[in-house]
Amino acid sequence: MMTFPRQPESIQSHLKISPEVQRLLELGNDSLDGEMVEAILDQAVRFSSEILTPFDAVSDKVGASFEGGRVTLAPGHDAAWLMFREAGWLGLEMDPDFGGQGLAKPLAAGVTEIMERGSVAFGMLAGSIRGASRLLALHAPETTKEEWLPRLLSGEWGATICISEPDAGSDVGRIRTRAVARGASWEITGEKIWISYGDNPLVTRNGHLVLARIEGALPGTRGLSLFLVPSGSAPREENGVTCRRIEEKMGLHGSPTCSIGFEKSLGTLIGQEGRGLPTLFAMITGMRLQVGAQGLGLASAMLETAVGYAAERKQGGPADKPPVPINQHADVRLMLLNMATNVETFRGVVTAAASFAELAEKEDSEEARARAAALVRFLLPVVKNGGAELAWNVGSLALLVLGGAGYTQEWPVERWLRDCRVLAVFEGTTGMQGQDLTLRRMLADDEGLKHFCALFESELSSGQAPAPPWAEEALQLMREASRWVRESSRTQCELEAAATIFLRFTTIVLQTWSAARLVNSGSEQLAAIGAAWGQDVIHDARALLERAMVSAGRLIALAKD
C-alpha cells in the first residue's frame, strides 16, 4: 500500500528538489540551508501542535464576542499571541533591520502552512500584520516606517486592510469613504466591512490601511488613494475609529470580523494620490500566497486525520475473520490517494510561486527579476484559488472517510471544513481569480504564461528519463488553451464565461507540472505520488478545456436568443 509523507517532511522534500530554491541558494540565501530548514520547521510544528491546535478547538466553541463597543476574544487567545510574538514568528521574511527574520519566502510559506494548520482563525491577525508590513516597507515615508514596522513585527501593534464597504465589495470603484486634506494629514470618513481583527485586545494600537476617495478625485478605481489610519485601545486614542459590530459567521469563530466606522479620523497618505489600488497590490501578492498556504495547511491536516482514522477504524472483510482496517477497502484507498496526490502536487506549486516571488527581488539581473515577477503574476490566481479548492475538496473526502464520525464535533474535520470555505471568497473570489488569469495573464499580459510553457518544456526535455506522456499532453493542452483565448474573434462575454473553468484547468496543468518534478525527484515515495496524479488527471484537464470552450459558446447562443 502506498504511504504518504507527513507535512514537515514533505515541505523539506519540496524545498530540496525545487530548482528555484537551488537558485536562491546559489544567490546566497542561507536560510534555505537543510539543517536550518529542518530546525525552523520542527519549531513551527511544535508551536502549532502544542499551542495553536488546542486553542483552535476552544476558540471555535467560544468565539469572539462584542459588547459595549469592544471585542472580546476566546480564553487563551492572549497567551497564545504573546508566545507567538516572543518566538518571533511574525516577521518571517521581513527585513531584520525592522525586527524580521529575513527568511526566504518558500521557507516562510512552509512555516505559514504549518501554523495555519493549527489555527486559521489565529493566523488571520498575523497575515494582516505581515501584509501591511510589506506594503509600508515599500511605500510609506521613512518616518512612518521607523515608527510602525518594528512595532508591527513585534506584535505590539496590529494592522487591518479596509477595502470593502456595504455598497462596494468586489466593485471597488464604488467606494464612498472620503478623504479631506487637513494640513499634513487627512481626515477619513466612511464605513468599512469584513475587517479581520478590526478591534481586538491583543494589540495596543491598530493601523488601518484604508482605501478612500479624495474630494474631487476621479470616479472609479483611478480616484482611490490609500491611507494609514491609527486607532488605539484607550478612549482618547480612538481617533474617530469605532467598531460597530462583528459578524456571526459559518467558521473562523475565533477571528472577529468587524464593521469599522471612521469619523474624521486622521491618517497618513501611503504612496501617491490616486494610486491606492496599485499601492495596495504590494500587500495583495503576499496575502494571496498566504491563502494558498492556508488551504494547503488545512488540507494536510484533513489528509493526515483521514489516513490515521482509516488505519485504526476496522470494518468489513471476510465474515469468518476479524474486521479489517478500512484503508484496505478500494474505495477508501482511492479517496486517500486522491487527497494525497492533490496535496503533494499543490505543495510544489506553492513552493514554486513563493520561490519566484523571492527571485523577483533577489535575482542578479533585471531580466531574470522581470521573468520571475511575470511567473508570479501568472501563478498567483491559481495559488490563491487552488488553496481554497484544495482544502474544501480534500476536507469533503476526509469527511467521507470518517463517515458519520466526520460529521460530528468529536473530530475536527467539520470545523476545518467550515473554516476553509471562506478561502474562496476573501482576497478575491473564485470568479475574480478566473478573470484575472484569463483576461490578464492569458491575454493582456501573457509573459508569465510564455515563461511557464518554456520552463515546462525545458524540464521535460532535460530529464534523465523520457518525459511522462501525461506531462507532455498537459503542456500541449496549456498551449491549446492559450491559442483559444487569444483568437481575435473571442468576445469579452465568451472569455468571462470560460474564465472560472480555465482557472480550474490551469490549476490541473500546474499540478501536473509539479507531478512531473516529483517523478524526477529521486524519492520513490514522491515519484509514485507524482505518477499517480499524472495518470489520473490528464483526462480531467482535457475535459475541462473542452467544457470551457463549450460553456462560452452556449452563453453566446443564449445572449443572441
TrEMBL record:
Record has Flavoprotein as a keyword: yes
Pfam families noted in UniProt: Acyl-CoA_dh_1, Acyl-CoA_dh_M, Acyl-CoA_dh_N
Cofactor(s) this protein requires: FAD
Residues in Acyl-CoA oxidase/dehydrogenase middle domain copies: 161-264
One MF annotation (Gene Ontology) recorded for this entry: oxidoreductase activity, acting on the CH-CH group of donors
UniProt keyword list: FAD, Flavoprotein, Oxidoreductase
Taxonomic superkingdom: Bacteria
InterPro entries in alphabetical order: Acyl-CoA_Oxase/DH_mid-dom, Acyl-CoA_Oxase/DH_mid-dom_sf, AcylCo_DH-like_C, AcylCo_DH/oxidase_C, AcylCoA_DH/ox_N, AcylCoA_DH/ox_N_sf, AcylCoA_DH/oxidase_NM_dom_sf, Diverse_Acyl-CoA_DH
Domain Acyl-CoA dehydrogenase/oxidase N-terminal: 79-156
Ranges for domain Acyl-CoA dehydrogenase/oxidase C-terminal: 274-435
Keyword Ligase attached: no
Family per record: Belongs to the acyl-CoA dehydrogenase family.
PANTHER family to which the protein is assigned, alphabetical: ACYL-COA DEHYDROGENASE, BROAD-SPECIFICITY LINEAR ACYL-COA DEHYDROGENASE FADE5
Name the record gives this protein: Acyl-CoA dehydrogenase family protein
Organism expressing this protein natively: Sphingobium nicotianae
